[in-house]
Design a protein that fits this description.
two-stranded antiparallel sheet, about 160 residues
Length: about 160
């Protein structure tokens, strides 16, 4: 994957899909259809719609057919394969990362009523699990450092240091 593709692949479910403004700097609004992408303003959502709309509908169809509770890596792989089959093409790097990093509860895999960890913004739980379970032992400081590094690299036009597949 070339540097340009890697740069465009940067996605995080709690950062504006267009300008990369993080959720801790301002409230973001999610795509009301797929709930994957989020935006800092209506203008950014409209500007991104041409790129987003094809995957948005396809992703929704794919997640309806997957079994909640199966292994997370397998689940995400199945969603990616289903999207590629439905679209009749390979997903581009940004779409791959979106499908891989979509928000699900870290306890039960549900996708409704999700609450993000206020420390790292990378771990998500559904409301019922957040009430019934103590904060899981995930490494907030490492996740936040990784996210801050990715943002720094993107904003300085460096190349994000992750690769999917």
């Amino acid at each position: 994957m070339c540097a340009r593709e890697m740069d465009s692949a940067f996605f995080h479910p709690n950062i504006c899909n267009l300008c990369k403004t993080p959720a801790w700097q301002m409230p973001l609004k999610r795509c009301t259809k797929c709930r994957i992408s989020c935006y800092c303003c209506v203008e950014h959502q409209k500007e991104d719609w041409k790129q987003h709309k094809e995957l948005c509908s396809t992703f929704l169809d794919a997640i309806k057919d997957v079994e909640v509770g199966q292994d997370r890596s397998r689940l995400r792989g199945v969603i990616i394969l289903m999207c590629e089959k439905a679209l009749g093409r390979k997903l581009n790097p940004h779409e791959l990362v979106m499908c891989y990093l979509h928000r699900r509860c870290g306890v039960c895999d549900e996708m409704a009523e999700l609450i993000d960890c206020p420390e790292c913004f990378s771990y998500t739980m559904c409301y019922p699990c957040s009430v019934n379970h103590a904060h899981p032992l995930h490494n907030c400081s490492a996740l936040r450092l990784n996210l801050d590094t990715q943002l720094y690299l993107w904003h300085s036009r460096g190349v994000p240091m992750f690769k999917i597949r």
